[in-house]
């Protein structure tokens, strides 16, 4: 019986360790995704500025 208790404790510790590791991975992934999306937004904002600068030129041609 005591062996089962010790095995249960080891299993619990291993599962807890795995869960903490996975939570950290999810946190890191979330951080990376947020940075990526912010980068996409900045790129789109820059494209809007370029388009706004180009649009009068394009209208003048047509």
UniProtKB/TrEMBL annotation:
UniProt-listed GO biological process terms: early endosome to Golgi transport
Source domain of life: Eukaryota
Residues making up the signal peptide according to the UniProt record: none
Gene Ontology cellular component annotations, sorted alphabetically: cytosol; endosome membrane
Record-linked InterPro entries: AH/BAR_dom_sf, Vps5_C
Domain Sorting nexin/Vps5-like C-terminal: residue ranges: 2-56
A GO molecular function held by the record: phosphatidylinositol binding
Protein name: Sorting nexin-2
Species annotation: Scophthalmus maximus (Turbot)
């Amino acid at each position: 019986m005591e062996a089962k208790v010790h095995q249960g404790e080891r299993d619990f510790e291993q599962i807890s360790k795995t869960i903490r590791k996975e939570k950290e991975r999810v946190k890191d992934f979330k951080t990376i995704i947020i940075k990526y999306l912010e980068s996409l937004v900045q790129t789109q904002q820059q494209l809007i500025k370029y388009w706004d600068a180009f649009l009068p030129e394009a209208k003048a041609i047509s």
